[in-house]
Amino acid sequence: MKFSWSFNGDSVAALAGASTMEGGRKASILLLDPLGAIHSGNYTCTVQNRAGVANFTAELRINGKICIRLFHSPTQNRAIFL
Predict the structure, then answer these.
(1) Is the peptide bond before 74 cis (omega within 30 degrees of 0)?
(2) CB-based contacts of 41, cutoff 8 Å, min separation 6
(3) Which residue, of 5, 10, 36, 82, has the fewest CB within 10 Å?
(4) Residue 56 predicted with pLDDT over 90
(5) φ and ψ of 39, to 5 deg
(6) CB 28: neighbour CB atoms within 10 A?
């Protein structure tokens, strides 16, 4: 399978902070870091194989400011997103 991602009709490669990674042979993961208001919009994942092409579009809305608070765990640092 071949996966591709777009943001408002353009490749996510042009979007600051966006990256993708494979999640095995049958999955693709879109990462947005750091997440901000510029990332609000429509994201489309398109997958293609010998049987054809399929896609799905979802809207991401970011309202207000994102606050990240960190707390310390004895084994690791964890982030809580509020």
Answers:
(1) no
(2) 7, 8, 59, 60
(3) 82
(4) yes
(5) -90, 0
(6) 17
Give 10's contacts (C-beta < 8 A, 6+ positions apart). none
Task: Report, as an integer, the average pLDDT of 33-62.
Answer: 92
Span 1-12, pLDDT tens digits: 999 999 999 999
- The answer to whether the Cα torsion of 41, 4, 32, 15 is positive or negative is negative
CB atoms within 10 A of CB 30: 16
- Is 2-81 CATH 2.60.40.10? yes
Determine the pLDDT at residue 80.
43
Give the residue-averaged pLDDT of 54-77.
69
Tell me the sheet residues that pair with 77. 72
CA dist 41 and 17 (Å) reads 14
Domain spans of the chain, in order of start: 2-81
- Between β-strands 41-49 and 2-7, what pairing exists: parallel, antiparallel or unpaired? antiparallel
